[in-house]
Amino acid sequence: MEKAVVTGGLGFIGYHLCQALLEAGLEVVCIEQPNETSIQGMDEKLLAMGRNALFEHISGDLDKEDSTIADRLSRADVVFHMASPSSKDSKWPMKHQTILQATKWVQFLCGSMKDDARILFPSTVEVYGDVPGLITEDTPLQPVSSYGMIKAEIELCVQKEAQLNNLNYTILRLPTVYGPWQRPDMTFAQILSEEAEVYQDRSTLDALFVDDVVNGFVLAAKSTNQSDIFHLTSGEQGQWFVAAQKLGAKADILKRTHSRSSLSPKKAEQQLGFNVTVTIEEGLRRQKEHMDKWNNTWDI
């Protein structure tokens, strides 16, 4: 693995992933939609990575199937498809339109990639719906939210298009991810920002620090498995609520609205060598430090 493309590379997880790939000595092409002006710290992120000769930023539109993007895709050993129509993916009225748009993106990406390259897609544990007990990768999908349903449909599209285009795929089902640059509408960020009204995240099954998640993506990209699906999880029950409680969340935020469930970590541990290394205490401290630094920068 020498060349990587990261769609949505200036987003929350995408930015940390680009940094990790650059540190590992890979050539990285970061693709962002030209109208995504709301991305936190875009200029700061580009400045941090733009100093690296291995980094290339392309402001391109996946809807328009840009020829420059297609060229970079054709040279990549791995494509991390982190981009999503995130402003729409939790809204019921936009469900069908969002699936059509996301499907078109996957078809363009897979159709442009070279044979035997790998596409990695971040899905969500919300594809399982409200399932009690231990959840494995073989647990039937029963999504109940629009977000879970959309991700489940994109998973199927990734698998189909990878097969049609002689590619390998890896789908990583993620819980809530937190850390520096977490979206401001996420619960932990809301509490740390001392928002007057705090809302519970759409997924409260588990919580992982972004560095651990990025490590999982890198391990999956290096894997010799042809195509597969994995959880990235702490393997512990109620970690999201543990973190929220440590932040001083109010009782309504700590109220469980789903069955008591946990995600099995065994498959990712055994086949990818994935293990969680950042404790909740350490992760929350690092997120708070970053938010304090960022807010102070704006106050100057």
From TrEMBL:
Transmembrane segments: none annotated. SUPFAM superfamilies: NAD(P)-binding Rossmann-fold domains. Residues 5-226 form the NAD-dependent epimerase/dehydratase domain. Pfam families: Epimerase. This is NAD(P)-dependent oxidoreductase.
